[in-house]
Amino acid sequence: MTTSDTGQGASIHGVGRQDQLLLASPARGYAVIYFVLLSLLAAIGCYYSIFTGFTGFRTGWDDEGMMMMSVKQYLAGFKLYDEIFIGYGPVYYFYNWFIRFVTDSFVTNDTTRMTSAVIWVVCPLICAWIVFRYSRSLGLAAVAQVLVFRHLAVFRVAPGHPQELCILLFAGLAATSLFAGRPRGIRMAMIAAGTIAAALLLVKVNVGIFVILGVSLAALSESPLTLWSGLARIAAVVAALLLPPALMKPHLDDPATRVFCLLLLASTAALLPGLFGRSQRGALSFRDCWTALAAFAATIAAAWLLLIAQGVSSWAILDSLVLSNLRIFQNSHFYWSRTFTWVWIPWALGGLAAALLFAHASRRANQLLAPLKLLIGGGGLLVAAIRPEILVPFITPYCWLLLYPPAAHGQSSSPGFARSVLAATAVLHTLYSYPASLQNPVFILLTLVGAVLLGDFLTIAAARASAGASRLIRAGALLTLVAIPLNYAVQDYVVVREYRRLPSLALPGAERVHLPAQQAADLQWLTRNLRAHCDVFMGMPDVLSLNFWTGIDPPTRLNSSNWMLVFTARQQLEVESAFDKHPDACIVYIPWLIGFARMWDPTLVTRPLPQYIYRHFKVVGATDGYYFLARKERDLSIPSGY
To answer: 82, 116, 342, 596: least CB-packed within 10 angstroms?
Structure first.
């Protein structure tokens, strides 16, 4: 396959060969130096930020402790899914084994957060490189880096969560797909696409499905059209269009969910004219597609065989990764209503109408794409900086604009595999925020889309700009390049000062963690009294970080911070049976989190395990919202920790 076959080769980003020669060599060297500096500044703030506070105890579930416990049990030799209850895929545990093996470290809050900090710094750097490859704009790449870094502040909420690995894999997919624009790079890009799609499926099943569909649409749009590939296209398109209403069916009575569903349907439909409506490009051969499929199958098979070799049963894998997640997903109470209103429907339909118009427009009419890219790209980055919560309704209906890169030498240009992957995956991945996941991972791909679209506009504008306009653009870029490191420096000063102002938690494996004095005292009080008075304990909801600090194992290997929502009646009875064997069992009771959970399901406290706790345990001490419960027959009273 020749370079010209890809539609990207010497004009990979819609920039002429001569322009690339002028931009690539010097800009690349400056870019490396600049982003090393930027990453160092980001790393300082990242380190002190991720070790400040313990949000799992104050603003939500202790997912940090939950994931740490499941990793610890896996590294101790217990079998995933048969002996460890968890709904995340094996690749996450293989990854953690590798990290702990390479670093020769134990699972603690400190080591887990350090790993999260590294990903927090690396992912924005990869995203900046992607934007630089598309746009050749150092300033735009820097803007993308700082925005993605801000989105990843969600790592502070639940360090060590599998979504961190998912985000790293997403960045890897977007980066490696760019290899398809190089001679002999398509094979590498397809192997990476298949492997990463499988890995995501084996970390979080829902995320993997979204990516598989996105990659399939992109690959099929770039492959030759035959009877069988045509049928495959139809199947992929139907699946992509049916996915939003099928997933959202339990909550379509909520107006916000109906808006979300319609928005995604319009956004997915808007991709189709750009993907399949133009003349056949044939940038990928069937051999390339089979390469991706083989890489996908090989990754799945390798992970499955490794689990089997470790003694895990196939039924346990299926039940934990698919059936159990389906049961949780179908729970109509496990849901956060979105804030989307009907005003976004005309905006989404406008995106669909524009996609249909430009798919059949003349070359001259396509020149109108430039101002539209400025609106969506520039507006999207502004939204990402100010109100990221509306990134989904603002950018998603216009992701199809990626499929129309700047023309090279006045000729029409193919979007190429990389753009098709980014566009299709960005649209379908917005489903990740449904029904109750954090939206920040969704923001990252949409921010990338906005940056690439603005880069397309700048490429066109630079080719047409007068000398005065060019100087203005360079001045703006220089100002941006100076302002972003200064912004990082100011943020670093703030977070370092805050970190040093707060005392260390000073508990085993969490010495680096600093948090408010009262909260540190509360957690130290709990740890001290659990060690002194309990042979086993659990939280209501669970607080598995306490098990690391006390050195006391949980009663079972059923790991879930929000077990009141997740555990079945049978599983709750299993915990109850384990507690019956321990006369000195204790409970850490957090009423406000239970009230939070009851907003999803008011019947939670009527289930077996909560009723068992209410019948057999009493309050024997308290500190600042945490209640220490012991068995009613015990003559125990603990001085207050207030």
So the answer is: 342
Q: Is the backbone of residue 325 left (phi > 0), alpha (psi -120 to 50) or beta?
A: alpha
- Residue 206 CB-density burial (10 A; 0-12 exposed, 13-18 middle, 19+ buried): middle
Range of the domain at 101: 3-52+87-484
**Quick check: is 500 in a domain?**
no
**Mean pLDDT, all residues of the chain:** 85
Please work out, in degrees rounded to the nearest 5, the angle formed at the alpha carbon of residue 351 by the alpha carbons of 348 and 352.
90
Joined tokens for residue 97? 């084994």
**pTM (global) more than 0.85:** yes
Same domain for 167 and 312, yes or no, is yes
Residue 471 has pLDDT above 80, yes or no: no
Q: Do residue 393 and residue 251 come from a single domain? A: yes
Quote the tokens at residue 126.
């990869």
For residue 160, what is the DSSP state? T
**What's the token pair of residue 156?**
């502070």
- Please give the Cα distance from 562 to 69 (Å, whole number): 14
User: How does strand 617-623 pair with strand 585-589?
Assistant: unpaired
Contact 87, 569 (CB under 8 A): no
Q: What is the pLDDT of residues 93-144, one digit of tens each?
A: 999 999 999 999 999 999 999 999 999 999 999 999 999 989 888 889 999 9
pLDDT of residue 50: 95
Tally the domains of the chain.
2
Nearest to 245 by CA among 226, 228, 264: 264
Indicate the pairing of strand 585-589 with strand 536-540.
parallel
Asked if residue 623 lies in contact with residue 642, where contact means CB atoms within 8 angstroms, the answer is yes
In the 8-state DSSP scheme, what is residue 359? H
Pair of tokens at residue 175:
């980066």
Torsion angle in degrees (nearest 10) through CA of 175, 178, 179, 181: -170
Structure tokens at 58: 């104050």
The Cβ of residue 599 has, within 10 Å, a number of other Cβ atoms equal to 10
Q: What pLDDT is recorded for position 222?
A: 86
413 pLDDT band, cuts 50/70/90, is very low
Count of alpha carbons within 13 Å of 310, Cβ hemisphere only?
Answer: 23
Give the pLDDT mean for 43-61.
81
pLDDT at 608 over 80: yes
Torsion angle, alpha carbons of 68, 72, 73, 79, to 10: 100
Rounded-to-integer distance, Cα 420 and Cα 358, Å: 16
Element holding 563 (H helix, E strand) = helix 563-566
DSSP H or E run through 295: helix 286-309
Whether residues 454 and 360 share a domain: the answer is: yes
248 part of a folded domain: yes
Give the C-alpha separation, 232 to 220, whole Å: 8
521-554 pLDDT, tens digit each: 999 999 999 999 999 999 888 889 999 999 999 9
Site of tokens 């400190």: 110
Closest CA to 619 of 574, 582, 586, 578: 586
- Neighbour-count burial for 2-32, b at 16+ CB within 10 Å, e otherwise: eeebbbbbbbbbbbbeebbeebeeebeeebe
Q: Given 460, 484, 508, which residue is the final one in a domain?
A: 484
Q: Do 273 and 326 fall within a single domain?
A: yes
Tokens describing residue 18: 């001569």
Q: How many CB atoms lie within 10 A of CB 241?
A: 15
Give the model's pLDDT for residue 282: 61
